[in-house]
Specification:
three-stranded antiparallel β-sheet; globular; 94 residues; alpha+beta
């Protein structure tokens, strides 16, 4: 199963969300990231798992390893920043 990130698609979308729009991730990898997030017990641990990245960091990771590298950075699940309006959409369900 696969899901895709969708930005809000309007003029307020930031460069990072514009970049993440359309990126596909496996549901199983998303579930693993979710489990890592849930296991955190402090804000510091949380930020180690899903620290908000700059668009340059995301581009570098994606160029070096695609969606898997973004997932490793904790970018497989929105939100990507304060007031992020990105969502996820299932595109392939067995």
């Amino acid at each position: 199963s696969v899901y895709v990130v969708r930005s809000a698609g309007d003029e307020r979308v930031c460069a990072l969300c514009r970049f993440m729009d359309g990126k596909e991730f496996s549901v199983s990898a998303g579930e693993q990231l979710r489990a890592r997030i849930i296991a955190t017990t402090t804000p510091e641990e949380y930020m180690e798992v899903v620290a908000w990245k700059k668009v340059k960091e995301a581009l570098k990771a994606y160029d070096g390893g695609g969606s898997s590298a973004l997932m490793e950075l904790g970018m497989g699940l929105p939100p990507y920043h304060l007031q992020c309006r990105c969502s996820m959409e299932a595109i392939s369900i067995p």
